[in-house]
Amino acid sequence: MKPGTRALGVAESYRGDESTLAGCVVRADRVVDGFVFDSCSVGGTDATDSIRRLFDRLSRPDVQYLLLAGIAPAWFNVVDLHRLHEAADRPVLAVSFEASAGLGDAIREAFTGEARKHRLETYRAQPPRRPVDVDETLFVRTVGIDSEDATRVVREFTPEGGRPEPVRVARIAARAADSLRRHSGDDDRS
């Protein structure tokens, strides 16, 4: 992979009813090359649209990949990777960091009625997770990229510590922005 290849990592931080989404552009040589922020509702269904807005506002045609920290930010606000791929016209990789049996049971326990039905339908429509070994095992869902290339992308953007650099830096930025928002008095969160 060329050193200047860029990926947008997206991660979140939340307390209260709103989640801060941070997008971080990172080059394959680990140079941070931009930030963008948005938000989505905790327990809502707007994460896909929020990430799409974040990508559109960034307006960076040089970004070649979208790497997401998981598929269900902000308390089961399930991301539709297919819709996101279609909107961004870029490969989308959702990376999770722990083995699990999936989110189906947790969604069924947390929601009822249409809220449950919508989340389960969106969740079931996503590609399955598959393991990718870096320093540790990550679990990756992909749309718009084959398994071999996805493995290469994850490995190239993961220097050490088991987190792809775009997602790691985005997570730090989301936490900082969320902390600033809480302490600046711009909202009601405690």
Describe what this molecule looks like in 3D.
The chain is α/β, with parallel strands linked by helices and 190 residues long. The chain has a single domain, classed as archaeoglobus fulgidus dsm 4304 fold (2-Layer Sandwich). The chain is built from seven helices and seven strands. It has a seven-stranded mixed β-sheet with strand order 3-2-1-4-5-7-6, sandwiched between helices. It is globular and about 50 Å long.
Task: State the main characteristics.
190 residues, alpha/beta, archaeoglobus fulgidus dsm 4304 fold, globular
The CATH class is identified as Alpha Beta
C-alpha geometry: globular
- How many separate helices? 7
The share of residues in helices is 25-40%
Give Rg in angstroms.
Answer: 16 Å
Number of domains: 1
List the topology elements:
Layout: E1 6-15, E2 18-27, E3 32-41, H1 47-58, E4 63-69, H2 73-76, H3 81-88, E5 92-96, H4 104-110, H5 113-124, E6 130-133, E7 137-143, H6 147-156, H7 165-183
Parallel strand pairs: 1-4, 4-5
Antiparallel strand pairs: 1-2, 2-3, 5-7, 6-7
In short:
This protein has 190 residues and is of the alpha/beta class. It has seven helices and seven strands, in the order βββαβααβααββαα. A hairpin with a 2-residue loop joins β1 (6-15) and β2.
